[in-house]
Amino acid sequence: MKLTQRIAELRKQLTDLGRAQMAYAGRFMTPEVTHRLNRGEATQKKEVVAPGVLTEIGLTISIPENATDAERRAALAKWITDPRHPLTARVIVNRLWQHHFGVGIVDTPSDFGRNGTKPTHPELLDWLASELVNPNHKLGNDVTSWSLKHIHRLIVTSATYRQSSAANAASLAKDAQSRLLWRYPPRRIEAEPIRDAILFVSGKLDLTMGGPGFDLFEPNNNYVKVYTPKKEFGSAEFRRMIYQQKPRMQLDDTFGAFDCPDAGQIAPKRNVSTTPLQALNLLNSNFMLQQAGYFAERVKKDAGSEPEAQVKHAFALAFQRSPSAKERVAALKLVKDHGLMALCRALLNANEFVFVD
Q: By the 8 A CB rule, do 233 and 289 touch?
């Protein structure tokens, strides 16, 4: 057998073996000794530095210098999740508060240090943190600690969360940003729930969980992928936006304008802006025109052909309420002059649809 034929056979065998099983290679070893370096120079080693944690936090651990990597990781994990740790629980509950109110009790969620801001309600933050690690609260038939569901429930059933967003001049003069929570702070919701809500109202939201995600860019076979936004959308794109395949440094045509962060960077807190492009995207994009059409079809199917019933049902689907007398008159005129789809398009563009207050 010629040498070239033998090499080809060996290559084929290796390829087949690679397809049949996956192998992982690595080294198990005790971490090397760490030294303090003079002025950061690797060649100027000082004393040996043992594994440890920040002592300023007030909770210390003792790890032998010869501890294995696994032992060090386990010790660090136990230190982070120790109920006495002053930061872990506070950081977690602050993120949950930020999710519900748009801004945390500490509005620098990744910086609780000197470069961050002080909490607006420090006692509240302490109490929520203690509730998170408390092993005595009961959920269903289970007694558990570190329950995020328990904190969510405390927040959304609180008087602070359920209060009106109505403003008054005296309070606005003292606290225009509502940081002291004298009212529920009105805020625009993020891109993902806006898109999901539009699909839900139009009756097209696919709630299937798991599996591969969907892409909002045209497929192509270029050596370097070109991100051309899709202009037409079908059932494959009607899943919740959490399943969107998110490329780095590339935003989709319609909802990228709503302060979606770069997927290549961490974003502990998103910017919240109001721009003309947001309004234009919600009014004129192909996706919105398509969904307004589906919304109108759903209203006709549910409410019939009577404009009065259509208007009432459209408001119920979009806003979970009946139209006011003034809204009813304006909506009926819009349907008469421009059709039901125009009303559905207007409702999806209303502030009430994209703001929580």
A: no
37, containing H or E segment: strand 35-37
Counting Cβ atoms within 10 Å, is residue 129 exposed (0-12), middle (13-18) or buried (19+)? buried
Dist CA 201 CA 296 (whole Å): 10
Phi and psi at residue 305, to the nearest 5°: -95, -5
Q: Does position 30 have pLDDT exceeding 90, yes or no?
A: no
335 close to 344: Cβ distance less than 8 angstroms:
no
Note the pLDDT of residue 137: 60
Per-residue model confidence as pLDDT tens digits over 164-185: 999 999 999 999 989 999 999 9
Cα–Cα distance, 214 to 242 (Å, whole number) = 10
Residue 269 makes CB contacts below 8 A (sequence gap 6+) with: 98, 103, 104, 107, 108, 109, 110
List the one residue out of 63, 327, 212, 137 whose CA is nearest residue 347: 327
205 near 196, Cβ under 8 Å?
A: yes
How large is the average pLDDT for residues 236-265? 87
DSSP assignment string, 109-163? TT--STTSPPPSSHHHHHHHHHHHH-TT-EETTEE-SS-HHHHHHHHHTSHHHHS
Query: Tens of pLDDT along 70-82?
Result: 888 999 999 999 9
On whether the CB atoms of residues 124 and 102 are closer than 8 A, the answer is: no
What does pTM read for this prediction? Answer: 0.79
Distance CA 165, CA 185 (A): 6
Q: Residue type for 239, please? A: R
Q: How far apart are CA 313 and CA 99, in angstroms?
A: 30
- On whether the CB atoms of residues 137 and 150 are closer than 8 A, the answer is yes
207, exposed or middle or buried, with CB in 10 Å at 0-12, 13-18, 19+? exposed
Structure tokens, 59: 């909770």
Classified as helix, coil or strand, 333 is helix
pLDDT in tens, 306-319: 999 999 999 999 99
Numbers of helices and strands, H then E, in the chain: 14, 6
Backbone angles phi, psi at 356, to 5 degrees: -105, 120
